[in-house]
């Protein structure tokens, strides 16, 4: 099952109601980019903890927000892919005997 | 992913902070020492001045201040001097602040920038670097700075940062000694180097369109569409 972990080289800042991801080093995200998250994106970011899978994140989101599993899965997956494309997170497949870095 | 210009990002953040007295901008002067002895400057004690060095805040004290301002909501931080690279531990201070999620602008005269420092800044990329150019000719530059060889060192610092595509701006302070070269400095910066140039002023970042930002939305619609089923327990994660 695919698990997600945050890059060590990105910092989340909460300034009043705004959530911002600030890359620390040049090997993460695009040069000169910072990222603002909306409320749901912030909650998903909090749930990315190296242990949570897509299914686990969606389960939490559907428990907290009035959204069905299909729409939540689609939205969360799209968001995770955006984070992954920006190298703000990485994913890995975990099998019973080994972890494979993607 | 929705792309925002830096100005849009900045405007959005400032709009949300309006009236809340959040110290979103900060300035820290890390040293009063400088290798130059500019005619107009009030802040250029000798680099080897032991007394001056002894009065500077320590690395640990800088870390504590950074922790406090991050907690208070600071996002844009300017490091200036003196000359910031006159402090041997400046990159340590800078790195600590970077790792706390600050967007950092550096003011420097560029003369102490080495390939090693430039490589480091390419890795831990500052939000902006501003180098003051004191003249377009060696004669004028060094007449103002009082240090032979400083013009070449400044140009080398500029070149080192440009080679690494760092977000560099040039500026000058117009005084009697160099006023006849101001327009040539501007032409040099803008036309020969392709860099932004300005006469020195205090506010340096708010209108700089030097960074891209993106608004990441989870869901095809704004999160407000999803009404909360229940209130989440706050986790208290306010800082970086």
Question: What are the main properties of this structure?
Answer:
heterodimer, A: 102 residues, alpha+beta, Outer Surface Protein A, domain 3, three-stranded antiparallel beta sheet, 3 helices, 6 strands, B: 240 residues, alpha/beta, TIM Barrel, six-stranded parallel beta sheet, two-stranded antiparallel sheet, 8 helices, 35% helix, globular, disordered C terminus
Largest sheet of chain B: 6 strands, parallel
CATH topology description of chain A: Outer Surface Protein A, domain 3
Count of folded domains of chain A: 1
- Global structural class of chain B: alpha/beta
Tell me the β content of chain A: 25-35%
Gyration radius of chain B (Cα, Å) is 20 Å
Enumerate how many helices of chain B there are, as a single number.
8
Write down the overall mean pLDDT of chain B: 86
Enumerate the spans of chain A where pLDDT stays under 50 for 5 or more consecutive residues: none
CATH class of chain B: Alpha Beta
List SSEs of chain B in N-to-C order.
EHEHHEHEHEHHEHEE
Count of structural domains of chain B? 1
Low-pLDDT residue intervals, each spanning 5 or more residues of chain B: 202-211, 219-227, 230-240
The end-to-end distance of chain B, rounded to whole angstroms, is 23 Å
Structural class of chain A: alpha+beta
Distance between the termini of chain A: 12 Å
Bin the helical content of chain A: 25-40%
Top-tier CATH class of chain A: Alpha Beta
Q: How many DSSP E strands of chain A?
A: 6
The CATH architecture name of chain A reads Alpha-Beta Complex
Shape of chain B: globular
